[in-house]
Amino acid sequence: MAKTPTPFRPLNISVLTVSDTRSMAEDTSGDALIERLTHAGHKLNDRKLVKDDVYQMRAVVSNWIADKETHVVLITGGTGFYSRDSTPEAMMPLFDKTIEGFGELFRQISYTEIGTSTIQSRAIAGLANQTLIFCLPGSTGACKTAWDGILAEQLNASHRPCNFVSMLIGPDTTHQHEA
């Protein structure tokens, strides 16, 4: 008997922009992520912008991962090699588990768009207190690449053979079959 397809299940997603130069009005990367996540059927849980400061980032994200209603945190900015880029250093101590393949796959997909410049991305992801955290570059194009090429599928319960949704909000029990 074929498996019944798993229906889409909306997630609560928070977006953090890390920037020393942008204001919320100029945050096209955050805007792009919000447009994509809401278009996909997810809920914007919260949105903030902080300076590239390890402790400010950790404070915001720590509050989100302590909130059981937050399933996913998308962080844009601070993943490069400039002296102020510190998003990976800020987030790695919070991770219970690192999602090694995320950064690798992001750079592979990004290579087709920006060539060898992709090696300057330190995009990473991890799981903290049953909350997924994805650290993306600050460019709008990179955020679109990450969402379209990876996140849209991995945050969709119907994606096969596997996705992150049931790990975040448990298995869907609304479509159980009678014996």
TrEMBL record:
It comes from the Bacteria. Pathway: Cofactor biosynthesis; molybdopterin biosynthesis. CDD domains: MogA_MoaB (cd00886). One of its GO terms (cellular component) is cytosol. GO terms for biological process: Mo-molybdopterin cofactor biosynthetic process. SMART domains: MoCF_biosynth (SM00852). Residues 14-158 form the MoaB/Mog domain. Keywords: Molybdenum cofactor biosynthesis. InterPro entries: MoaB, MoaB/Mog-like_dom_sf, MoaB/Mog_dom, MoaB_proteobac, MoCF_biosynth_CS. Belongs to the MoaB/Mog family. May be involved in the biosynthesis of molybdopterin. NCBIfam families: moaB_proteo, molyb_syn. This is Molybdenum cofactor biosynthesis protein B. It comes from Marinomonas arctica.
